Write a sequence for this structure.
């Protein structure tokens, strides 16, 4: 949902966006009156949640186009900072791919940000998806600082190795302080290491603001990767001049406790441009204007950016390869796979159960990331990776009926009429279950059948699932210590299993859900999806 509680203001430095796609370069910047001698004009360009450097399937976004607009802004004024408000290393098709036998794991995105010329980035929750070691490697690869004031090392008591809590940079004679914080849920929703702790963001923010002020900062920017409710809390618990955020995948423009908050949607479909007229002596804000610039085919590519990224051309060609076909459209919308049974969720679970020879299968709905309906017909490697971009393994666990029931209880424990659809929601195969939303979490499962027979709490079942779930993530702690069959080491990867299904047609996805999951206690029309999902 777009917030508009700050009054829209006319842009102080409009960018010329009416550009011919075939133009050899950007149009000349529109002349604008210079501010008075006691005023410094600073421009903050910002993006968040950018998972690919190419344009989207709808031909929006593309960091090469953003590079064009950034260079144009710099021609207008050198007082420009380009900010990235978290989530870029994962999840994405390219990050899941391999080059020369090595998984990219976000390497291509750092190369893209280096080519663009970003000034600062805050870590998002998905920066930890590949673990601490990969994140350290990506930080070392970056030619810009990563901020994470509330990302701490238990051993050293300092911020995560290679990160900064904050920084101060002089821009146009004004000392600009900037710090970054990430949402605390990262501790459990991603894969930070045992030595890494995500601490309360308000405490980290207060400490950072005190330190940047002591270092001479006159204007303070909070670069955040928080839910919007947390950004609002941050605005109340510490005084900063502006909050530039990410994570929600929604455009936000509002003021809380006198602090403006700005956020954009994902994948650089738009570029945020915040123009500030500051008092040259004190850094106080005299005038502020925020404008959202659509990134479309009207904005030409930047040749220098493309030259630096040409090493990835073979990868892009590989991703376009055909791996098979689907006879029906597949519902890969994120919210729907977290709300209830989908034909894709059932197909995934069926494929993994058959590939492993298990009795039942469970896939967490949050593993599905394409967030669109894939049409029937040809399936490419890119579409395969887009369905499930996370690197996972298939495992088979031996679980009792009691444990299986507990896993299902966990899967529906966060489901609600008006809450955000939970990533732990279970898509299943080999079983059916009913849950009652009117009952308290932990006591919602009212009926479970395995292959047509009532679940036997004392029986032992072979459960196929993803390594993410088997490791106890998304609340599936009851599976963490369950015996894993030795044969799990020889199982195909989830991608290989799906490639086999798409190429052979076995198992075949169904056009509609098969009634494996029944919900009691829902309002008329069932549970509804929010406007967007991250």
């Amino acid at each position: 949902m777009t917030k508009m509680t700050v009054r829209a203001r006319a842009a102080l430095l409009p960018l010329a966006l009416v550009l011919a796609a075939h133009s050899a370069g950007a149009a000349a910047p529109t002349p604008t009156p210079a501010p008075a001698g006691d005023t410094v004009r600073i421009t903050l360009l910002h993006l968040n949640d950018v998972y690919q450097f190419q344009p989207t399937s709808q031909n929006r976004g593309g960091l090469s186009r953003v590079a064009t607009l950034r260079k144009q802004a710099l021609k207008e004024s050198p007082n420009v900072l380009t900010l990235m408000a978290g989530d870029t290393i994962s999840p994405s098709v390219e990050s899941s791919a391999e080059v020369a036998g090595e998984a990219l794991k976000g390497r291509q995105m750092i190369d893209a940000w280096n080519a663009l010329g970003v000034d600062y980035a805050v870590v998002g929750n998905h920066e930890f998806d590949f673990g601490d070691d990969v994140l350290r490697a990506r930080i070392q690869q970056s030619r810009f600082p990563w901020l994470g004031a509330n990302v701490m090392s238990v051993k050293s008591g300092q911020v995560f190795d290679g990160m900064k809590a904050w920084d101060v940079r002089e821009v146009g004679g004004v000392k600009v302080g900037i710090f970054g914080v990430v949402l605390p849920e990262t501790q459990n929703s991603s894969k930070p290491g045992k030595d890494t702790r995500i601490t309360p963001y308000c405490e980290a923010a207060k400490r950072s603001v005190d330190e940047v002020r002591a270092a001479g900062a006159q204007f303070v920017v909070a670069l955040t990767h928080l839910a919007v409710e947390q950004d609002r809390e941050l605005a109340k618990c510490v005084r900063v001049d502006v909050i530039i955020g990410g994570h929600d995948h929604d455009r936000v423009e509002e003021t809380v406790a006198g602090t403006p908050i700005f956020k954009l949607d994902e994948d650089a479909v738009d570029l945020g441009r915040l123009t500030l007229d500051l008092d040259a002596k004190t850094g106080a804000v005299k005038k502020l204007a925020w404008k959202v610039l659509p990134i479309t085919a009207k904005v030409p590519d930047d040749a220098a950016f493309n030259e630096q990224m040409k090493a990835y051309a073979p990868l892009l060609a590989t991703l376009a390869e055909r791996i098979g076909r689907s006879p029906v459209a597949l519902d890969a919308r994120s919210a729907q796979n977290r709300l209830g049974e989908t034909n894709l969720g059932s197909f995934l679970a069926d494929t993994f159960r058959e590939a492993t020879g298990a009795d039942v299968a469970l896939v967490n709905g949050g593993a599905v990331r394409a967030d669109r309906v894939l049409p029937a017909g040809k399936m490419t490697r890119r579409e395969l990776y887009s369905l499930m971009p996370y690197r996972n393994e298939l495992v088979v666990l031996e679980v009792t009926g009691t444990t299986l029931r507990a896993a299902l209880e966990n899967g529906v424990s966060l489901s609600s009429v008006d809450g955000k659809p939970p990533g732990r929601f279970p898509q299943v195969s080999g079983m059916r279950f009913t849950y009652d939303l009117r009952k308290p979490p932990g006591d919602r499962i009212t009926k479970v059948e395995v292959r047509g027979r009532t679940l036997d709490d004392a029986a032992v079942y072979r459960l196929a699932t993803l390594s993410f779930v088997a490791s106890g993530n998304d609340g599936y702690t009851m599976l963490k210590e369950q015996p894993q069959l030795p044969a799990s080491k020889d199982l195909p990867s989830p991608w290989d299993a799906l490639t086999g299904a798409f190429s052979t047609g076995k198992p075949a996805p169904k056009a509609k859900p098969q009634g494996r999951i029944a919900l009691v206690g829902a309002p008329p029309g069932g549970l509804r999806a929010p406007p967007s999902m991250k």
